[in-house]
Amino acid sequence: MKFVYPEFLWAFGVLIIPIIIHLFNFRKYKVLYFSSLKFIQFVDQQTRSTQKLKHLLVLIARIFAFSFLVIAFAQPFIPAAKDNSKGGKPVIAIYIDNSFSMSMKGTEGELISEAREMSRKMITEASLDTRFMLVTNSLSGIEQRLVTKLEALERLDKIEVNSMVRNIGDVIEWQRNAIQRENETNQKIGVIQYVVFSDFQKNTSDLSKIKADEEAFYYPIKLTPLETSNIYVDSVWFTSPVQKIGESNELNVRVKNSGDHDLTNVELHFEVENTRRDVFLDIPANNNTTTVINYTEQKEGFKKGKVSVNDKQFYFDDEYYFSYTVAKKANILILNGENAVNGISLVYSLDNFYSVEEINQTSFTSESLSEKDLVIINGSKDIPSGLAEDLIDYSKEGGTLALFPGEEITPSSGWNAFLSSLKMPTLGSPFTEGVKIKNINYEDIFFKSVFEKNPENINLPSIAKAYRSNSFSSSQSIGLINLQNGNPLYIRSLGSLNVFLYTSSLTPSYGSFTSNALFSTILLRTAELSKRKNPISLIIGSDSRFPIYSKRKSETPIHIKNKQIDFIPQISRKGSITYLSLSGLEAIENLKAGTYSIIDETVKGILSLNYNRNESNVIAFDNEEIVSLFEAQGIKNITLSEISEGQSLTKIDLEKPYEYWKMFVVLALLFIIIEIALLKFWRK
Q1: In the predicted model, is pLDDT for residue 34 greater than 60?
Q2: What is the pLDDT of residue 382?
Q3: Which of 341, 316, 243 lies closest to 594, judged by CA?
Q4: Buried/exposed code over 204-243 (b: 16+ C-beta within 10 A; e: otherwise)
Q5: Do 223 and 235 share a domain, yes or no?
Q6: Collapsing DSSP states into helix, strand and coil, what is residue 587?
Q7: SS3 of 471, please?
Q8: What three-state secondary structure class fits 31?
Q9: What are the backbone angles phi and psi of residue 316, rounded to the nearest 5°?
Q10: DSSP tag of 201
Q11: pLDDT interval class at 651 (50, 70, 90)
Q12: Mean per-residue pLDDT, 208-235
């Protein structure tokens, strides 16, 4: 047995008081009259023996009563683990998982309500000197403080679900570090008990970062919902990279079923502007279904939409918001070099969607790139260093480059230095053997949906000469059209830059490529993919960034705003692009799923936000797996509880090393009663 306050044991000195009383018991003598003195000596001897025994028993009762009171005030305890007695304040570190999965229904309401009520009982029943660390997924600065019982109860009522998701291992390690700092700087910490309230989903229960611990006590408490199935909208995307007026859109919607039963006729509701539609889906157990919704755009501008399913168990992931822009036009700049051809501008002139500006390469200035979606190098023999720097910066800012070299370029020209900076293969000497087109990479996204079906007997253009592609295999690029000798004819980049390279020349001496339908196909497709697009949605709290491509002249803060929320996001700039950051705790606490307008002095765009789907798959660890997870990290003192029938029917017993003082108080009262009984009822 050890003591929380061993210094109070000095109070054993008070035992001298009953001893002194016993030794110097000043009694008043009473005169008794006897008719005969015959038995006086006998009675006196008998009375003295009885009185001595009575006084000795009273003394023993008093000594025990005082001793037990002293021990009670010293707060004795028996440590459950070796070297677990440190003295100091006992700490109960409670973690309540307040992610969306804790909003699922249990026997007595939402799981987070059950967690709050059980935490309230633990806090109420703890000793007055216990300190608490009440932690949620926020892991905010205020949560790392050790607080009193009253403060903990006040903060408990403010815990609500939000979209933040944390790994349980990260939370426990965060608590440990905070308690260690407190022990080193402010107050001495005694026995530590970690209580974890969670549904222990497999997606959020990684404990790999926890260090071994043989001293503290761990109480994982698993809260189990009534139903463990979930239907949710997983993702939404368009088949076509660009949306135009009068053209049909294909919106792909993936819906998942995380339950163990097949579902039929699941209703999916779709709406964009004034277009509304209901689709009915069959979704296999633990699987997904993707459906395609077709509709036609009637006018240009910002569009916002939503798809939703009806799930009676879990609500946060039932809706998926998206937004996009129906563009009026795509802006193209053609820089004509020495061997420029007319075919490029002729192709784009057939479609009013494309606005083309055509200038000589020698007339180029950096202002020429303003608000251009695609820049085409048409027949240049050389790329001057100044032009190359401007085009590289333009590409890094999201612009698209389509490069068509001129005739007889040389390695000493600026072409290869320019291509190397773009991480594209460089061009070598021309060759004429094996220049027949071998195949088209129909599987690449570039040609996806371009043809209704992959043509087998397509009339391919004739190529007379092409440049050898150096280091193609090691570059970050892929061949879209390939020649028989293995050399690519048309290449696109695979990195963050959007660059296309034609490895021949468009002049007649290099072939008749411009006279074939494939030429206009790749030009139009390149222009479609070049249109600067914003993501149709972002995840709240993730590291995704939303770009604003239009130049901002005003220093007015950017707001993202809807009818309920007005939020100022963090911004960063790269060249002429402004990026909105929606990551971090502040965004999670202030933003909700929905569609927002982006505003400074005017409306700059539209943005849709959704919650992270990490918790949508509600599969949880079973009890044995949870214990194994802790034991695998070297944690010894584990007591697991499962709440499946309501918190009011479940009793959780924490290790309470400071409760032994109550037993000594009871013993002290018992000996006081014995003393009183001896004095009152023993009259001889």
Answers
A1: no
A2: 92
A3: 316
A4: bbebeebeebebbbbbbbbbbbeebbbbbbebbeeeeebb
A5: no
A6: helix
A7: coil
A8: coil
A9: -65, -25
A10: B
A11: low
A12: 89
Among the listed residues 336, 500, 339, the one whose alpha carbon sits nearest the alpha carbon of residue 425: 500
**Alpha-carbon span 130 to 192, nearest angstrom:** 10
Instruction: Convert the pLDDT of each residue in 166-206 to its tens digit.
Output: 899 999 999 999 999 988 888 888 889 999 999 999 888 88
pLDDT at 84: 44
Q: Which of 507, 525, 514 is nearest to 405 (CA)?
A: 507
Residue 4's CB: how many other CB atoms inside 10 A?
23
Max Cα distance, the chain (Å): 158
Asked if 252 contacts 236 with a C-beta cutoff of 8 angstroms, the reply is yes
The most confident of 43-47, 107-111, 368-372, 608-612, by mean pLDDT: 608-612
| 606 and 622 co-located in one domain | no
Within 13 A of 44's CA, how many CA atoms are on the CB side? Answer: 7
305: Cβ–Cβ under 8 A, 6 or more apart, which residues?
Answer: 251, 270, 271, 272, 273, 321, 322, 323
CATH number at residue 564: 2.60.40.10
Say what the pTM is: 0.76
Distance (Å, whole) CA 398 – CA 331 = 14
Examine residue 83 and state whether it is found in any structural domain, yes or no.
no
266 residue type, one letter: V
Confidence band, pLDDT 50/70/90 cuts, at residue 245: confident
Taken as a whole, the chain contains a residue count of 684
Mean of per-residue pLDDT scores for the chain: 85
User: Which of 500, 530, 560 delimits the end of a domain?
Assistant: 530
Q: Looking at the DSSP assignment, which residues form a beta bridge with residue 380?
A: 405
CATH of the domain at 623: 3.40.50.410
The predicted pLDDT at position 61 comes to 81
Does the pLDDT of residue 8 top 80, yes or no?
Answer: no
Q: Is the pLDDT of residue 678 over 80?
A: no
The pLDDT of residue 38 is 56
Same domain, 10 and 25: yes
Half-sphere exposure of 150 (CA within 13 A, CB side): 0
Residue 171 placed within a domain? yes
Query: Which residues constitute the domain of residue 667?
Result: 2-78+662-681
Most confident range (mean pLDDT) of 31-35, 168-172, 550-554, 675-679 is: 168-172
Rounded Cα–Cα distance for residues 492 and 482 (Å)? 12
Same domain as 503, residue 397: yes
Q: In this structure, how many other beta carbons lie within 10 angstroms of the beta carbon of residue 244?
A: 20
Looking at residue 558, the DSSP 8-state letter turns out to be: P
Q: Are residues 477 and 583 in the same domain?
A: no
582 Cβ contact list (under 8 Å, min separation 6): 538, 540, 541, 542, 544, 545, 546, 569, 591, 609
More confidently predicted of 1 and 511: 511
CATH code of 496's domain: 3.40.50.880
Q: How far apart are CA 295 and CA 65, in angstroms?
A: 88
**Residue that is written with structure tokens 């929320």 in the block:** 565
pLDDT recorded at residue 219: 93
Q: Are 126 and 117 in contact (CB under 8 A)?
A: no
In the chain, the amino acid numbered 646 is G
- Are 161 and 285 found together in one domain? no
What tokens were used for 364?
């180029």
C-alpha to C-alpha distance for 10 and 74, rounded to whole angstroms: 10
Q: Which of 494, 577, 593, 595 minimizes the C-alpha distance to 540?
A: 593
Q: What is the number of domains present in the chain? A: 4
Residue 542 lies in a domain: yes
Report the C-alpha gap between 344 and 170 in whole angstroms: 57
Same-domain check for residues 412 and 525: yes
Q: Which of 530, 558, 573 is the last residue of a domain?
A: 530
Q: Which two tokens stand for residue 294?
A: 């077709």
The answer as to whether 84 is a domain residue is no
Chain centre to alpha carbon of residue 246: 39
Query: Do 510 and 576 lie in a common domain?
Result: no
The answer on pLDDT for 613 being more than 50 is yes
What pLDDT sits at residue 46?
A: 54
